Structures are given as structure tokens and as C-alpha cells.
């Protein structure tokens, strides 16, 4: 009964008579879940979002930090970090805490951050310079340390930032995601501890930073890969993506006309803001990186 009522309320978001803001459904979090679900069901290990054999995905886990409080009132401490999703070989503890732990024989750990218009988040209260990219890579090092799993033993160790192609082309994430910038910010964070975290930095963060692949991937490319293998499913996800863009547009970009529509005048106004307006045609079908292994 409860799930049926939830379903009815969600479906109302598409009828024009929603009972809550449509952005509760049409957002990057649900878009990411749909995409990860598709790649899990259609298999293969040749695409960044493809699970390796025995791997899984989980949305909104908490990642352990090397900088948790040492005592009450620790002025240097931070809380655990929250990720949009993780893909790989891991377990999740109490569903209420969603704490993540790597399996002892893991070979895949992909932490995913999903964006539409937002940038990566800024620093923590006790370290304003310690932004989301640096914090996430440091958490990945701590995950490996707790599992006693050397970074070199991982086949796939990745921080993946998903965003619209226009945002990636604008270089919105380039500086924060640069390996040297990440290393410098974590090094500064460690220096605040006056030697107490030097061993962790040397033995776990440095090897992780050398091994991890930090990269951006466009939602549009993901949609095209799905459409190449399953055109109808690609079109459905493409439509959902358009609604996500529409319902989450910044107020300053109010001229953005909405998903899959818009007159030439509306498109001109949107172009002035650097926004790509999806068209009514299905996603282009072009050769794409293989995402399946024949299942599906």
C-alpha cells in the first residue's frame, strides 16, 4: 500500500499536478541511479560505469575519513564524507548509517559524484581549502587502508565526475580535479596535524593518488552509449535527463525552456547562457564504447 502511494505521488510529477517539487524526482541523484541500474543489467566491464564481476553499486554511502575526531571538540576533525554513489567490491553496514567497507579481495572501487549545474563542493568547516575532490580521494585512501588493500592491487580505482558536456567543456571541474591540486590540498590538511598523519600520507594517500584515475564523463555520452545498445531505453533516459536540467536550472537561467522543447527564440536566450537545449529527436546512434557482453 505504501509503495503504491509513493508511486502515485511520483507519477504526479509528470502530470502537471505534483504534490511536491518535481526536482525531488528529477535530479542528478535519480538520474545516476537509473544509469547505474542500466549498466548493471546490461553487463560488461569495458565502460567506466560497468561493474566488474561480483561488484555492486550503492547510492549515497558514507565514506570513512582519516581525519575523524580524536577527542571531543577536536578543532581539526571532520565528519565522514558523503558520496553520490560507489561502484565496486564493498559491503555496506547498517542501512541507517550506510558506512562503506572494501572487501579484502576487491579489485574495483569507483566513487561517483553527479552534477547538473553545481560545482564540486567547497571545504569543510575546519579546513575551507579542503574541497570535494581532495576529500574524496583522501577517503578512498582511507578505505584502502582499513581494508589493507594496496592501491596497486586495484584494477579500477576511479573518482568519476558526471556532468553536462557544456560544464565539462567550460573547465568547471578541471582545476579541482587536477592530481597535483588534490595532492597539495591533502598535504596541507596533513600538515595541520604536525606529523601525526605523515605516515598515512606517505603509505596510503601518496600511492592512492598515483594510482587513482580522476576523470569527468558527460551525461550526454552516457545516454548515447545506452541508446547505441538499447535505443528505446536511451530515449527514455534522455527524456529524464532533460527534465532534470529543466527542474534544476538556476534561477538566473530562467530562460532555459525546459526538456525537449523550445522555440528558436528560447534557444537563442538559452545559448546566451551557454546551455545546450535537447531536441525532440532521439539520441544519435553512433559507434560507442562497448557496454555489453551480449546479455540483456
Task: Give the topology.
Blueprint: H1 2-11, H2 28-42, E1 56-59, E2 62-63, E3 81-82, E4 85-88, E5 90-92, E6 100-102, E7 108-114, H3 132-147, E8 156-163, H4 165-169, H5 179-191, H6 198-211, E9 213-218, H7 219-229, H8 231-247, H9 264-272
Parallel strand pairs: 7-8, 8-9
Antiparallel strand pairs: 1-4, 2-3, 4-7, 5-6
Helix pairs in contact: 2-8, 3-5, 3-6, 5-6, 7-8
Can you put this structure into words, describing what you see?
The protein is of the alpha/beta class. The protein has one domain. Helix content is 37%, strand content 13%. The protein contains 9 helices and 9 strands. It has helices spanning 2-11, 28-42, 132-147, 165-169, 179-191, 198-211, 219-229, 231-247, 264-272, and strands spanning 56-59, 62-63, 81-82, 85-88, 90-92, 100-102, 108-114, 156-163, 213-218. The strands form 3 sheets. It has a 5-stranded mixed β-sheet, sandwiched between helices. A two-stranded antiparallel ribbon has the order 2-3. The longest helix is centred in the last third of the chain and has 17 residues, at 231-247.
Amino acid at each position: 500500500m505504501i509503495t503504491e502511494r509513493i508511486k502515485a505521488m511520483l507519477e504526479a510529477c509528470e502530470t502537471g499536478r505534483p504534490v511536491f517539487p518535481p526536482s525531488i524526482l528529477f535530479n542528478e541523484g535519480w538520474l545516476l541511479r537509473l544509469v547505474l541500474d542500466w549498466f548493471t543489467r546490461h553487463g560488461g566491464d569495458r565502460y567506466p560505469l560497468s561493474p566488474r564481476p561480483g561488484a555492486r553499486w550503492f547510492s549515497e554511502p558514507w565514506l570513512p575519513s582519516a581525519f575523524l575526531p580524536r577527542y571531543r571538540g577536536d578543532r581539526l576533525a571532520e565528519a565522514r564524507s558523503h558520496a553520490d554513489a560507489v561502484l565496486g567490491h564493498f559491503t555496506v553496514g547498517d542501512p541507517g548509517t550506510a558506512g562503506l567497507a572494501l572487501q579484502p579481495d576487491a579489485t574495483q572501487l569507483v566513487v561517483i559524484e553527479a552534477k547538473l549545474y553545481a560545482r564540486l563542493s567547497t571545504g569543510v568547516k575546519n579546513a575551507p581549502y579542503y574541497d570535494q575532490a581532495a576529500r574524496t580521494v583522501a577517503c578512498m585512501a582511507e578505505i584502502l587502508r582499513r581494508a589493507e588493500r594496496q592501491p596497486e592491487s586495484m584494477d579500477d580505482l576511479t573518482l568519476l565526475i558526471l556532468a553536462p558536456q557544456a560544464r565539462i567543456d567550460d573547465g568547471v571541474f578541471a582545476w579541482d580535479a587536477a592530481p597535483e591540486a588534490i595532492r597539495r590540498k591533502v598535504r596541507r590538511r596533513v600538515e595541520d596535524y604536525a606529523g601525526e598523519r605523515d605516515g598515512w600520507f606517505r603509505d596510503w594517500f601518496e600511492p592512492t593518488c598515483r594510482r587513482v584515475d580522476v576523470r569527468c564523463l558527460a551525461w550526454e555520452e552516457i545516454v548515447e552509449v545506452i541508446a547505441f545498445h538499447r535505443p528505446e531505453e536511451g530515449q527514455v533516459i534522455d527524456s529524464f535527463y532533460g527534465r532534470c536540467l529543466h527542474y534544476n536550472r538556476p534561477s538566473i537561467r530562467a530562460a532555459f525552456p525546459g526538456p525537449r522543447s523550445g522555440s528558436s527564440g528560447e534557444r537563442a536566450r538559452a545559448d546566451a547562457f551557454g546551455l545546450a537545449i535537447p531536441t525532440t529527436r532521439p539520441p544519435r546512434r553512433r559507434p560507442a564504447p562497448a557496454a555489453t557482453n551480449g546479455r540483456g
